[in-house]
Each structure stands twice: as structure tokens, then as C-alpha cells.
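2024-03-11 09:14:02 DEBUG pipeline.ingest accepted 1 chain
2024-03-11 09:14:02 DEBUG pipeline.ingest length=247
2024-03-11 09:14:03 DEBUG pipeline.predict start
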Amino acid sequence: MRYFFFKIFLAFYLLSNLSLSADFQKGLDAANSGDFVTAIKEWRPLAEQGNKLAQLYMGDIYNHRNGYGVVAQDYKEAFKWYLLSAEQGNAEAQFNVGNMYYKGEGVEENYSEATKWTIFSAKQGYLIAQYDLGWRYAHGKGVTENDLEAIKWYTLAANQGDSDAQFNLGQMYRLGEGIKIDNKKAVKFYLIAANQGDVKSQFNLAEMYRLGLGVKQDKKEAIKWYRAAAEQGDENAIHNLRLMEKM
């Protein structure tokens, strides 16, 4: 269940909407305690008055699988609130609008609109939108497959610390997808993600050390990273670790 712990946005909201801040805070406190009846009561008037955060949160409530127990899930209603917030420049709402166009939830499926809104969000630095665009361009989902575009968006998400984007970049550099093979860069991105606990990157980093790709061949480092992945239950890492420890 997604609760409304939006504290990082609250300071900005309070500074820019002092006249509405008491009602907004009351709604936020209620949502954080699981009282969505009160949250809706406080946020709906603000959303109707044009407050983009209240619109975003109303969209979240209607988008939830059971409306947090207070309203029926209603994708059309969720889309309505998200779009109002998105049109005022809220990056999260823009991503949600794009996602609903992509899935055809509450609105007719439209890949062109999905891409447009997701790009709006990604350009504002919204990490999830950046990763999502990278994935869509890498796999040709709703857009023409374009590895260079995938690398562009994955890189932005990776620079914000997203381990999945870091792993995917490692793969693209290792396999030469849309770019010249560069094992050193592959190792760089695998290492960053592996240090965050990404099991796929830990396994692939072990492989690079075992084979001497992009780094000097190093059995100890290979074993180290196989063990890290094995401890997370990776079957291939467990198998390779056993083999290397016997060598």
C-alpha cells in the first residue's frame, strides 16, 4: 500500500500556499495515519480550487486498487486529477498521465501521448520517468526502438542512483547495443549497481573479473562478487562460486 509520506514536497507547498496550508496539512496528517476519509474531505476542495499537489493525491486515491477503502477504484477519475496536476507542471502527475495513456487506463491507449507526458516528466528530473523511457526505447515498447535514446535516458536515471538503469547501461556497453562495445564502462556501471546490492550486477561483475573483460583477470574479486550474488540466492552465482572455490 502506498501511503502519503510526501514530506519532501510539503515545505515548498506551505511556502507557496500559506492560505491553504492548514487544510492541506490536516489532510496529509490524516492520510499518513490511514484516515483517507478525512484526507479526501480536506484535499478535494483544494484540488477543485486548482492546487496541483492536492490534485495529484486525489489521483493517487482513485488510482489505488481499492481507493484506500473510501472510494471505488476509478481510473477515469484518477486520470482526470492527474491531468489537472500535470498541466500545471507536476512531474509525478505527468509521469502518471503518460503511464495511463500507455496502459489505456482511464483513457484510450495512446502511445504518442504517453511518450509526450513521460518526456515532460523526465525532463524535470523525475527518475522513474527517465528509467521508463530508457526501457521503452530499449525494447521498442510504444516507441520506435532506439538504443541511443535508451542510453540517454538510462544514463540520466543512473546518475540519480537507479541501480536498474546502471545495470542496463552495463549490459548495453558490454553487448554493444546502440554503442561500441566498451567493457571498461560496462564494469563501471556494474560496479556502481553491485555496491548498491543489485544481484544481476554482482553476478555480471564477477563474470568480468573471471574472464578479464574490462578489468585485469582476478579470481579473488570474481569470488567476492559471486559470493555477494550467491548470498542473495542467485543460482548461477552459487554454481560458479562452488566451481571457482575448487580451483
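2024-03-11 09:14:41 DEBUG pipeline.report The longest helix spans residues 36-48.
2024-03-11 09:14:41 DEBUG pipeline.predict end
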